[in-house]
Amino acid sequence: MFPQVLATVGGSGTRLYPLTLDQPKPLVELCDTAIIANLFRVLASQGCRRFILGSKGASNTLNLSNYFKAGEGFFKRLGIADHQDFSYQPLYDDVGSADSLRYCMNYFDIKDDLLVVSGDNLIDIDLSSIVQFHQKHKPVLTVALKEIAPGESISSYGVARVDEDMRIRGFVEKPKPGSEPSRMINTAFYLFSPEVREVLAKMGDKARDIGGDLIPYLTENGYPVYGFPVAGYWIDIGTPERLHQAAMDCLSGRVRHFDRKYCYKTNQWIHPSTLARIEPDLASGDIVLKGNVSIGRNCRIERGVVIENSHIGHTSLIDRDVEIKDSMVMSFAHIKHSVTINRAIVGRHCTLEEHSALGVNNGPNGGVPVVGENVILPSESVVAPGVRVALLKYSHSILATGRFNELGIDERNIYFKEKIR
User: Fold this and answer.
1) In this predicted structure, what is the pLDDT of residue 256?
2) CA 56 from chain center: how many Å?
3) Sign of the C-alpha dihedral, residues 413, 403, 388, 292?
4) Angle CA(216)–CA(7)–CA(5) in degrees, nearest 5?
5) Taking Cα atoms as reference points, which of 235, 224, 244 lies closest to residue 30?
6) Residue 395: CA atoms inside 13 Å, Cβ hemisphere, count?
7) What is the pLDDT of residues 233-251, one digit of tens each?
8) What is the pTM of this model?
């Protein structure tokens, strides 16, 4: 049996606004499935059967509980019968991931190894390898490390100082270019031995964050902490650009355990309920699919539509002469005729009125435009790369973060963009 899993879920997810204005970041859709459900699927498909959600606050806890309930539906969809019910952190206002870890280990009396994951990451790791590594070295903590290729920036990560035997001596947070001690970064994927309960008890109130408090305490006081190099896929889904990248990677097959059912053609997947509606137009060439395409259930797609390297969420309406390229359209969207979408994200229950354009001429390095949930985008709108759109009622919440600049408003919506830092 693989270790029990604790998913730490906290934070307001402001970097992903407007997609997180009404829901916690782990529940944002990634190709028709919540980010955290994609993560759990990777773990469950390899043997994990016991999950705890270390959530904080009513918004996180209640939404996650409504989504997963006791987990029966999640396991049933995977064809797994030998599982335990999902558990949830009780009403405890933790002050960080280490505090949540301490509380949950005590509350659920966990006396075995515990796998701790961040609820907004997607990792496709060989679990058996890291478990065997952990059992061989017997550290208090094994940290999954990802080696970043030369030329890629690592200044936004915690970078490990490691010995030749992969023992971690500490982390350098957000190092300046050229000063990093290695190219190995912290993925926030941790395998703890039960001894960590005693360590957390010693630390008391000083144990707030795993990366900021617990790991430095362990390394500074001589506890064995080891790094395990991750060969598989990993991404921290903290921004629209990273969410978009994760969607494109799922479509392209880079995430091995991603659920891709109902293959229509090579690299193209269409739910049977949608295929029954559109198959004649596909056969005649009146609907064109190019590259990696995924289309959910019960969608209506009209003639003249071109979809390239994109995902269309379930129960979406795509009117005639629409072009969608390198994009993720979430569920219940209505894309009206002659709309162009390029390297963009369209949130749930959105309407894009006719002749609108998102991300025109948006290249691979441009910001991803995002239309938030329940937005009605006026006809002939042009949403430039990096621009985000939300309902006007959220304007105060958005601007109060200090992270965004207002670009303008109309009778329904606010248009904003992240400040250059």
Assistant:
1) 75
2) 18
3) negative
4) 95
5) 244
6) 12
7) 899 898 999 999 999 999 9
8) 0.93
CA distance 24 to 348: 14
Two structure tokens written together for 77: 């969809």
SS3 201: helix
Percent of the chain whose pLDDT exceeds 90 = 76
Q: How far is CA 120 from CA 20, 37, 414, in A?
A: 12, 10, 26
**Cβ contacts of residue 99 below 8 Å, gap of 6+?**
207, 208
Identity of the amino acid at 200: L
Least confident of 167-181, 184-198, 239-253, 372-386: 167-181
In sequence order, which residues have a C-beta less than 8 Å from that of residue 33 and are 6 or more positions away? 41, 259
- At 257 the pLDDT is 67
Q: How confident is residue 78, by pLDDT bands cut at 50, 70 and 90?
A: confident
Across the range 308-330, mean pLDDT stands at 98
Q: What are phi and psi of 272, to 5 degrees?
A: -55, -35
167 strand-pairing partners = 226
**CA angle, residues 237, 343, 291, in degrees to nearest 5:** 100
CA distance 157 to 173: 6
